[in-house]
Amino acid sequence: MSYSIAEAARRSGLSIDTLRYYERIKLLEPPARDSAGRRAYSDEDLGWLGFLTKLRLTGMPIKSMREYASLRRHGVASAGRRKAILVEQRQSVADRIAELQGCLDILDYKIANYEQIERKAFGVAPEMEGISA
Q: Which parts of the chain span the membrane according to its record (predicted)?
């Protein structure tokens, strides 16, 4: 199956400009061209774009993504370095999750504190305020 650039953009959730940019910086191999010379993205291309999107969501820098993409072209011989890049990024994500969990804990503490203040001030649990007998 092949997809136009507009359809690839829609399916991947990336803009047409981003697809062209990824191609320009060599994150994405130039897609095949149809008989009219227009880009024709494959299911494999869309799968790769999905993976790149996940890498960006992890906060991976473009530089690391470019290294990974370059290594990918070397096949099995580069598997060790590709794995190392992912292991490093995984640690970064785990650290960020821990940091965010600390933030969430503080928010939960403050919310519970305000609920306690409301109970003392109004003598009613906030979730019970809208209930009438």
A: none
Q: What is the pLDDT of residues 33-62, one digit of tens each?
A: 999 999 999 999 999 999 999 999 999 999
At 42, is the secondary structure helix, strand, or coil? strand
* Cβ–Cβ < 8 Å for 68, 26: no
CB 8 within 8 A of CB 44: no
pTM, entire model:
0.80
3-state class (DSSP) for residue 61: coil
CB 28 within 8 A of CB 22: yes
Q: In Å, how far from its chain's centre is CA 50? A: 9
Say if CB 3 and CB 40 are below 8 A apart: yes
The residue among 80, 66, 72, 68 whose CA lies nearest residue 44 is 72
Contact of 22 with 52, CB cutoff 8 Å: yes
Query: 107: which 2 tokens?
Result: 């928010």
